[in-house]
TrEMBL record:
GO molecular function ontology, one term from the record: aminopeptidase activity
Protein's name in the database: Aminopeptidase P family protein
Pfam families in alphabetical order: Peptidase_M24
InterPro entries: Creatinase/aminopeptidase-like, Pept_M24, Peptidase_M24B
The species this protein was found in: Dyella jejuensis
Length: 223
């Protein structure tokens, strides 16, 4: 029994398989990270990602592979990347994956800096730290999705970063979650149930053209 129709799941939903999809999605993300070398373009990185997915036995994508490099890290998933951007020697990029394994949806994202780029490294780490801060508030205090995103905004500003309000998290489930019309986590007025919602965090430097992204399932730590 769920609190809200937006937390409905399909007849084949299995929490264990959700966790396995999560684990394999993180494995895929780190497999792509190993292939991200200076000079690579976003298109080339996506092409190499297909090899990683095949090795892990991915069934399908449930959203396109998103890899953003440099100034494109400030853009949301709905915005097109600036063309002809390649990873520099001292640069930043993020990976956002929506993959299906065993009929269940994984959705993970993380940001990495390469070379000597201390501000970019700090931004990537800040996105992770902010995610863990907000996820901890959910786990410890049982706050609504709406309240969690208000808290995330306040904390991001206190940390010195711009917070992207267009990114509000969403449902996952047995594929496809879209039939349940779960909407955005940031608009959910209940305490989100464990293992059903993705918390997304996107921040940017207040003046420079780079940012960071991190997302994972609201559940026990995956890794």
């Amino acid at each position: 029994m769920t609190l809200d129709h937006r937390e409905a799941v399909g007849g084949r939903f299995d929490p264990v398989l959700m966790q396995e999809a999560r684990r394999l999605s993180w494995a895929a993300l780190h497999g792509i990270r190993e292939r991200m070398q200076p000079g690579i373009s976003e298109d080339e990185a996506r092409a190499q990602a297909a090899e990683v997915f095949s090795d892990l036995g991915m069934e399908r994508l449930w959203h396109p592979v998103i890899i953003r490099i440099g100034p494109n890290t400030t853009r949301t998933y709905r915005q097109r990347s600036l063309p002809d951007v390649r990873l520099g020697e001292n640069d930043i990029y993020f990976i956002d994956l929506g993959l299906v394994f065993n009929g269940h949806e994984g959705d993970v994202g993380d940001t990495f800096a390469v070379g000597h780029a201390p501000e970019r490294q700090a931004c990537a780490q800040a996105a992770r730290d902010l995610f863990r801060d907000v996820a901890g508030k959910w786990s410890n205090e049982g706050l609504s999705g709406h309240t969690l995103y208000n808290y995330a905004h306040e904390r991001a500003e206190a940390m010195g970063w711009r917070f992207n309000h267009a990114i509000k998290g969403h449902r996952v489930s047995d594929f496809p979650h879209s039939v349940h019309q779960g909407g955005d986590l940031g608009d959910f007025e209940h305490n989100p149930s464990r293992g059903l919602w993705i918390l997304e965090i996107q921040i940017a430097h207040p003046t420079e053209p780079f940012g960071a992204f991190y997302e994972d399932l609201l559940a026990d730590p995956a890794h």
